[in-house]
Amino acid sequence: MAEASSAMEADAKKRTPRLFIKEMVMSNFKSYAAEQRVGPFHKSFSAVVGPNGSGKSNVIDAMLFVFDKRAKQNLDSAGVSVHFQEIIELDDGMYEAVEGSDFVITRVVPFRDNSSKKNMTE
Fold it and tell me: Burial letters for 71-100: b for 16+ Cβ neighbours within 10 Å, e otherwise?
């Protein structure tokens, strides 16, 4: 019995937190008018499904936009926030959120003057 307990304690010590995306918030981004929330995402797998032209690829474009990759639009401004959290996987397939690990990366671009503002909040 003590051996099983020791093995479980060793497994628990090996578990390290990992980052996952909780949700995305988009404001006036491509086909997402005003503020739209996408999520919550699953800890291991998420799929964006819908008919042609519904904005599925814009979810990935929004992620790239936050990290300065692309997305030029004919709007006054656009913004995307990606919410992250650290989790620890549990044996039963569930997860435990690491307290205080939430943070958000936001990018807002007022297209009139071609400037960009990024913000990270914890």
Answer: beeeeeebbbbbbbbbbeeeeeeebeeeee
| The model's pTM | 0.61
d(CA 90, CA 75): 44
List strand residue ranges (DSSP E) for 2-122, in order. Answer: 18-29, 32-38, 77-89, 95-97, 103-110, 117-121
Write the DSSP symbol of residue 40: P
Asked whether 44 and 90 are in contact (CB, 8 A), the reply is no
pLDDT one-digit tens code per residue, 20-56:
889 999 988 887 888 889 888 888 887 888 888 888 8
